[in-house]
Amino acid sequence: MTRTEFLKSMDTMLELPEGTLTGSEKLKDLEQWTSMAVVSFIALADENNRVTLSPRQLSNCSTVGELLELAKVEA
Amino acid sequence: MPSHPLDLAGRAILVVGASGGIGREIAMLLSELGARLIVSGRNEERLSETLGLLSGTGHRIEIADLAESERIPQWIKSITSVSGPLNGIVHAAGKQVTLPVRMTTPTNIDDVFRTNLYSAVMLAQGFCQKNCYTQEGGSIVFISSIMGFVGKSGISLYSASKAALSGLCRSLALELAPVRVRVNCVAPAFVETEMLKHLQDLLLPEQFEALKQEHPLGFGNPRDVAGAAAFLLADTGRWITGTTMVVDGGYSAQ
Predict the structure, then answer these.
(1) What are the start-end ranges of the E strands in chain A?
(2) Whole-number pLDDT of residue B203
(3) pLDDT for A10-48, tens place per residue?
(4) I want to staple B93 with a disulfide (CB 3.0 to 4.6 A). Which of B4, B17, B22, B211 is the partner?
């Protein structure tokens, strides 16, 4: 899955209009970034990239771009 | 009637999901109470460890993957052809997934229900075959979960599968009462097992502490759950069927 496709999946997951997320967004500014979104992101990374993540790892990320790096999404 | 109401001497009991956690502890307690055990699971090495922890003699292991539920009745036949009729079965194998409903697919549903529910139905079917249970009847215990009664965000599939076990046990209890086979569930909250240690590694320290605080008596230990299962399997449970025994340290009292 490309970076663009992954971002689109995150848009859907967070119920944002397609094309909203670019990677530079700060997670603290995203009201949709809830504990349930954390769990959803973990499932997304596992399903699409076979990367196993934990909430603890995600808590160290401050931007969407850092989440993508953690999920090994190609730049 | 044995001299001690929890005495299981001479009883043959199959424990599935006995390679660790609650299932292993149940097997250990039942062996201490005198039962002869068939312990089952997928991992031979871990099952052998369980076997080494059992008291008494005459126990054996059976490697099996319950996800292949179609094969369970025949598997029970083959076990009883060697061990003789069973007095009881404990289903302690389970699958827990954290998956928001927006991310859930029918494959996920099938996966969780195959391990948690389909296997329970087929174990009951296997047990009630001719010559697979004793003439006196028997006892089936499903390890359910308090999550079948109360909700927690993100685990709807797991909750649904565990709630289904309680429904299953009520109707099965009526269906099998004429042949004196009792069917019950034990519903624990969070118990200190390897699974909980894994969860602790995943959660932030404050999240894990909050989870602990939800248990007025603290986290349980596997023996707390094993005691309830033993009670339902022994003569202490002879007039109990179709019910779910909640063992949750007060989790659901709030």
Answers:
(1) none
(2) 81
(3) 999 999 999 999 999 999 999 999 888 998 899 899 888
(4) B17
**Share in percent of chain A as helix, strand, coil (round to 5):** 55, 5, 45
The residue ranges of chain B whose pLDDT is under 50 are: none
Task: Report pLDDT for B201.
Answer: 80
CB-CB under 8 Å, A35 with B103: no
Please name the residues in contact with B3: beta carbons below 8 A apart, sequence gap of 6 or more.
Answer: none
For residue B215, which of B191, B199, B181, B234 has the smallest C-alpha distance? B191
Partner-chain contact A36 B154, CB within 8 Å: yes
Closest CA relative to residue B34, chosen from B240, B238, B234: B234
Helix, coil or strand: residue B22: helix
Query: From chain A, which residues contact B within 8 Å (Cβ)?
Result: 13, 35-36, 39-40, 42-44, 47, 54-56, 59
pLDDT at B1: 56
Q: What per-residue confidence (pLDDT) applies to B2?
A: 62
- pLDDT for res B40: 97
Global pTM value = 0.91
- Alpha-carbon distance of B26 to B89, in angstroms, equals 11
What is chain A's Cα-based Rg?
11
Measured distance CA(A42)–CA(B116) in Å, rounded: 23
Q: Are B185 and B156 in contact (CB under 8 A)?
A: no
Chain B residue numbers touching A54 (CB-CB < 8 A): 201-203
pLDDT of residue B102: 86
Q: Residues with Cβ < 8 Å from B87, sequence gap 6 or more?
A: B8, B11, B12, B13, B35, B133, B134, B136, B138, B139, B233
pLDDT value for B112: 95
In DSSP terms, B63 is beta-bridged to B41
Active site residue B158: yes
Q: What is the number of helices (H) and of strands (E) in chain A?
A: 4, 0
ipTM: 0.72
